[in-house]
Amino acid sequence: MYYDQEINSVFEELGVSEEGLSSEEAEKRLEKYGENELKEEEKVSVLRLFISQFKSVLIIILITASIISALLGELIDAIVIIFTVFLAGTLSFAQEYRAEKAIELLRSLTSPEATVIRDGVEKKIPSKKLVPGDLIILQTGDRIPADARVVKEFNLKTDESSLTGESVPVKKSTEALPSETPEADRTNMVYTGTSVAYGRGCAVVTATGMNTAFGELAGLLGTIERSRTPLQDSLDKFGRLIGIATLIIVAFVAILGVLYGFPLFDMFLWGVALAVAAIPEALPAVVTVGLGLGVRRMIKRHALVRKLPSVETLGATDVICSDKTGTLTQNKMTVEIICVNEQLLKVTGVGYSPEGEFFKENQEFPAEDPHLQALFLGAVLCNDAGLFKKDGIWEIKGDPTEAALVVAAAKGGLHKTELDQEYPRLGEIPFSSERKRMATLNRVEANSVSFPVNGLVAFSKGAPEVILESCTKIFHDGEIKALSPEVKQLISGKIREMADQALRVMAFSFRPLAEDISPEKVSSGERTAEEIEEDMIFSGLMGMRDPPREEVKVAIQKCADAGIKTVMITGDHKITASAIAKELGILKENDLTLTGSELDSLGDAEFEEKVERISVYARVYPAHKLRVIDAFKKKGYVVAMTGDGVNDAPALKAADMGIAMGITGTDVSKEASSMILTDDNFASIVAAVEEGRNIFKNIRNFITYGISTHTGEVLIVLIAILGWQILPLLAVQILWINLITDGLPPMALSVEPPDLNIMRQKPRNVKEGVVTRREIIAGLGIGGLIALQGLIVLTWALDRGFPIEKLQTLIFTLVVFSEMFNAFNWRSDRYSVFSLGLFTNKPLVYAVMTTIILQLIVIYVPFFQNAFGTVPLSLSDWEVILPLASTTFIAMELVKYFSGRGHKENKYEKTKSD
Fold this sequence. Notes:
This protein is α+β, with helices and mostly antiparallel strands.
């Protein structure tokens, strides 16, 4: 395992010396171990991806119906159906193909080159050519290209947040560790996919490719089967029901017609027409267009959806399990509290922008205060981080903790680039895990900064207890005074107070040095660190943390309003995680916080009993995340998982909805996800939730619209045959109704804006399917009303002795207009059209107008009269048709009004939004 071995033993076992591998040996090992790359999931070919869009039951039924229609001579209807199916499939294919191409462009995690020692010479090679035994050189900012054992280090720290979730850089050492040391605590190892945050070093490669810790996590993905989305399951179930109903309709109508003496061929053609009418062939297109438009809106909101149905899945989500570092927080250490002159100051501003102010008890505190200036001077000079502006954005170089100090000082007007030149560093005593502090020697003689001493000065920073112990004096009330036990106790209380707020506390001190303590004597070891860092003058404390994103708290509250539980799962410490979770509103009263070790002690049954009350998981590993996801799914929850690290990838794939970070996310996490946030912003998920809910609402409303219209057609035909032995509609008229009413209006319904209270509704139960009993009852009720309208016209026409052509034209036109009124009913199943606003969905208005114009052409243009068996209608005919058709709309408006669902809620929502 190498971490528990001395360096000489590691070199011997790996067959390498300090000269590195020879080129010949490296070639042999490359042949043996393979290239240093992760195996990707097998790519689906473009052809297979395209064909896969046409495998649903509903699509197969539609293709079969089109073939039958073509064989029976109904080429127009066959072409229309095939075109609709092809359009739906092509749109879905294009979206998935574009998304996959975009994913490839996001690949930026693994370093393309590595610096190695081979043949005794330092050189750069492609990282994929690394082999076990290679000596790699590590510098600040480098991506680590393989797992390796540290053999040399100088203040080496690595950012392992992508692997462990730990937000603070890890100090590395060369010492052998006990064999029972957990992976996260193996400080003499560096891992592929992480990066060097500070310092430099040399390490010998111990594992490459799929044998790395990164690769093992990637391998876990192959054992996890991605769940089908609720929408896919619901549509397939609905398609099967429609298919069975279609066969029954065809058989029943054909047999009934033959029994009444109609020609067998005519009845078969007529039955097929009714069957096609019973199938909402626009459904796949509407679903695809609705999803596609939702995806386009999401891209504008910084979310890249890899699979179209994933948007709907997020809309059904009950639980969002989120990583902390970089997802809920900014991944930018920020100084928030400063203690100087026995006073606690609050620092405003977040991130790396040097903009902020200082406040004491809500009163602004002057940045020019000499105690604050002295603290900042030491924090800047005893510091190796840098702050710079690139393309208008403030960025850092080096350790984020040290960078936070530089940023805080810049807020006080002290800028590192200027101070480094004015007060040059003459020597240093580097930080070590044993000493827990760092010191620098600088000459302070200029007067640009208020400082109580001049000459050669030692500045020190480090762990509060260590720094405080080394101090015998304090800079207080503008003077250097003796540090009494009482004041020490007071400072210790301030340290505890800051630590209780989950702040990482750092202390600072300084002392003037006698001229006989020269930097040269320090460098040569003639003067020890203990001599330099004794009798120090305490200057103050700074408390920092990785702050939450400002917009996340609002997003989490919106999730709570929407009935969605947010759970934090992080590798960070319990106190820090709990404090952030409380601030964000994740951890509420009576909620539980659990560590990974505490989770390990729980049996599956006991854990599943508690899982709904646990809001924070701290110090967890990848296996823990999978266990949390699995526990929620067993209880029937639809689970979304957000994350950016390799450690998140298995859970991202196992979750119903995996959401990866596009900027900081690793390749593995992106491959495992269903959606990628291109701005790494948790708040973007709220928009996706709303989009998903609205898409499903529109799909459900369209289906209900389809049930009502198709039910009306079928009932009119069946009752007319049974009661009067009359064909109320010709086969071509049925097909025309099906074409124009299931064409543009449903497409327009798919772009209906969200209901005003959609994010105050609880997540839908995915087990209930696309269509519930409520939708079926509503659809059948409106369908029955349309049938009643048709029968009224039938009896009215028969009483007046109208010829069969006019009778059929009247019913034909009535059904079309009734269904156009019905289209407005299903903009919302809750709100009145007048409450929504008649023109808030202009595409529907245009679709209805276009459909009406097409119907008028079929009635009044001679060519189409011959094709569709219609005759012109008089003004008196319209006086009957229009009032009857409008009752479809009037009846639904009355139902919405008397149910009391729409108007009161809508008024409340408008008040809230105003």
